[in-house]
């Protein structure tokens, strides 16, 4: 069983000293600040949440979504913290607020590794590696696990790489966040090549650790006391990770239908009906509102508050099983409203995700990312040939390589990582500009 005293480690990544718990500004509060002031977090303001390259200023971006998730996560963490303190940590310096800060910090960073154009961007990058470099034999020299890091490219794993390595890259340790926050951030604590996944273990649905950061996570997992699954690089989740996932699920479930209504893709009646069913009945003040948009916004707020209370109780009821590493599924889908969330998912697929404007934006995004990846990959291959036998680079590749200031000879796995670092770090707008430059558009 995991131990909360270890799970709340204030040790910072790549730093020997341990920060004390302070009533005024805890180490976990500092983690929040470090993430908020990072350039990777700021770039989320121009990254797709659901609607790509849309003209409306109303809809959420990755930045506003992350801030909303962090707000929900703070409440969930504080509620869980009170339960944990009452059960295990009475007489310590921990307060419920510390738990709220940890969950909120991890929530702020939960999408920090996503490429431009949302999850479609991830799918495009995976498809490109599978149909391009893999088919041409250019990944043959990589290990199976290294190949899978690209063939199954995952924004969550890229996020851990950003937090621990790419931000403040001149100084070892990235943002130097606490182990508690980094452990809570790790939604999928396994590498890409695990062979024996546990059925219904949501921690194993995807991978969250690239080969390049495996040793780093091993150190973090050992310090936190995360339970290892067998002898593979596969661990159970930090208990607070379930709250990060729930905060994300609450926000995108409720907020997606609000955005869909505001964009005119969902009718008022169906949006209202779903939200009222989540609540069970109409709030008292609801009858005082007359404007439809205001009504939906009010119901959204009430739904989120209702679900925070419900999820907090689910966590409290299952906390022991979670500590043992035996919890299956996620928190929200153990809710009495689980069937409604499935209904929301299907509704969004029909009317939002498959909307004509979104499809057209994804077509543009596919062409943009594919063209950029083609150009970067070709340039790096030519550099390899030049380094090996002096083969002259094409003028285009020579110019493209100026985007990468470090031209030392590196193994292919490393320069492929640099390439995906560059592309996944792009905002939607920067990717469009880079595409225009590559194509010579004015």
Description:
- Among the domains are: 4-114 and 154-224, Hypothetical protein af1432, CATH 1.10.3210; 245-356, putative deoxyguanosinetriphosphate triphosphohydrolase like domain (putative deoxyguanosinetriphosphate triphosphohydrolase fold).
- 58% of the residues lie in helices and 0% in strands.
- It has 18 helices and no strands.
- The protein has helices at 4-7, 27-36, 39-42, 62-88, 96-109, 118-131, 144-151, 155-166, 179-185, 214-224, 241-262, 268-279, 292-323, 338-353, 356-389, 395-400, 412-424, 428-439.
- Helix 4 (62-88) packs antiparallel against helix 5 (96-109).
Features:
442 residues, Hypothetical protein af1432, putative deoxyguanosinetriphosphate triphosphohydrolase fold, 18 helices
In short:
This protein has helices spanning 4-7, 27-36, 39-42, 62-88, 96-109, 118-131, 144-151, 155-166, 179-185, 214-224, 241-262, 268-279, 292-323, 338-353, 356-389, 395-400, 412-424, 428-439.
């Amino acid at each position: 069983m995991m131990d909360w005293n270890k799970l709340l480690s204030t040790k910072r990544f790549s730093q020997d000293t341990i920060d004390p718990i302070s009533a005024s500004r805890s180490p976990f509060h500092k983690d929040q600040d470090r993430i908020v002031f990072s350039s990777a977090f700021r770039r989320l303001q121009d990254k797709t949440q659901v609607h790509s390259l849309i003209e409306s200023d109303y809809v959420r971006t990755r930045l506003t979504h992350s801030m909303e998730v962090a707000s929900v996560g703070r409440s969930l963490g504080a509620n869980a913290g009170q339960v944990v303190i009452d059960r295990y940590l009475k007489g310590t310096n921990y307060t419920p607020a510390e738990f709220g800060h940890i969950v909120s910090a991890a929530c702020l960073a939960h999408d920090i590794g996503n490429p431009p154009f949302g999850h479609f961007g991830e799918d495009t990058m995976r498809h490109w590696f599978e149909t391009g470099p893999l088919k041409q034999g250019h990944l043959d020299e990589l290990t199976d696990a290294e190949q899978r890091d690209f063939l199954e490219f995952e924004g969550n794993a890229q996020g851990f790489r950003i937090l621990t390595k790419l931000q403040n890259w001149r100084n070892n340790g990235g943002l130097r966040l606490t182990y508690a926050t980094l452990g809570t951030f790790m939604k999928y604590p396994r590498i890409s090549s695990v062979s024996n996944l546990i059925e219904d273990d949501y921690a194993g649905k995807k991978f969250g650790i690239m080969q390049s950061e495996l040793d780093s996570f091993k150190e973090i997992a050992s310090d936190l006391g995360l339970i290892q699954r067998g002898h593979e690089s596969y661990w159970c989740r930090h208990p607070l990770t379930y709250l990060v996932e729930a905060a994300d699920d609450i926000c995108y479930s409720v907020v997606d239908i609000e955005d869909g209504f505001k964009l005119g893709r969902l009718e008022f009646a169906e949006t209202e009906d779903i939200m009222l069913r989540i609540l069970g009945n109409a709030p008292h003040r609801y009858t005082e509102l007359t404007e439809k948009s205001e009504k939906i916004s009010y119901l959204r707020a009430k739904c989120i508050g209702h679900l925070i209370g419900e999820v907090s109780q689910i966590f409290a009821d299952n906390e022991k099983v979670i500590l043992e590493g035996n919890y299956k599924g996620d928190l929200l889908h153990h809710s009495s409203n689980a069937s409604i969330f499935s209904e929301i998912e299907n509704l969004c697929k029909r009317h939002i995700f498959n909307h004509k404007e979104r499809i057209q934006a994804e077509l543009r995004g596919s062409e943009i990312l594919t063209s950029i990846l083609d150009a970067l990959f070709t340039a790096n291959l030519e550099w390899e040939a030049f380094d090996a036998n002096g083969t002259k680079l094409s003028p285009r590749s020579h110019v493209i390589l100026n985007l990468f200031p470090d031209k030392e000879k590196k193994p292919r796995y490393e320069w492929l990582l640099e390439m995906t670092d560059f592309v996944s770090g792009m905002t939607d707008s920067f990717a469009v500009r880079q595409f225009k430059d590559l194509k010579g558009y004015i």
